[in-house]
Amino acid sequence: MSLRQFMNHFRQVVHPWKTIEVDSDALLNVFKEADEEYKRIYG
Asked: How many domains does the chain have?
């Protein structure tokens, strides 16, 4: 396997994990906002 092939395969493996990172960060922000709203309403 050439270095170019290896890098292409490696990128295919890494790309979904970058998507997961972005999506999980967005989800954490949703929970943070919900927690802040709950504290604001219910003390």
From this structure: 1
**Chain position carrying tokens 């890494």:** 14
CA 19/CA 41 separation, integer angstroms? 33
The domain in which residue 35 lies consists of 18-43
27 domain-assigned: yes
Three-state DSSP state, 22: helix
C-alpha 21/C-alpha 27 separation (Å) is 10
Q: What is the pLDDT of residues 1-43, one digit of tens each?
A: 899 999 999 999 999 999 999 999 999 999 999 999 999 999 9
